[in-house]
Specification:
single chain, about 0% helix
């Protein structure tokens, strides 16, 4: 128990998951990089919070999903501003798909997210 209203429960049915990853990159003119990737995790698990409907009590528990699949692209663009200043722009859009069951409720969700990074070098 964390407090009178919250506890952490174990899950004896929890299965380990394996992560399968695939990526391919293509380099254009020795400096531009374009890539695609996928990460598939059957039996993916995570810890979730569940609020009981009949009492004022919630608990954390690890649950297995049917799978988690992450698909994405990546791109790297070098930028030379001058002899003393150069940059590298990295863009990674991705889609995360989760499918499974949580306390008897089936779900299938898809989220888009991304990362944009700009690295600057001053010489």
């Amino acid at each position: 128990y964390s407090n009178p209203y919250l506890s952490i429960n174990g899950n004896s049915d929890l299965k380990p998951y394996v992560s399968y990853e695939l990526s391919a990159n293509y380099i254009i003119r020795g400096k531009y990089i374009i890539g695609v990737f996928e990460n598939y995790c059957p039996d993916f698990f995570t810890q979730l919070l569940y609020q009981q409907a009949d009492t004022l009590h919630a608990y954390y528990k690890h649950y297995n999903f049917e799978y988690r699949n992450t698909l994405g692209l990546s791109g790297v663009l070098p930028i030379k501003w001058s002899e003393n200043v150069n940059s590298r722009l990295t863009v990674v859009p991705m889609q995360i798909i989760d499918k499974g069951s949580y306390e008897g409720i089936n779900f299938s969700r898809s989220k888009w997210c991304g990362i944009i990074t700009l690295t600057n070098n001053f010489i």
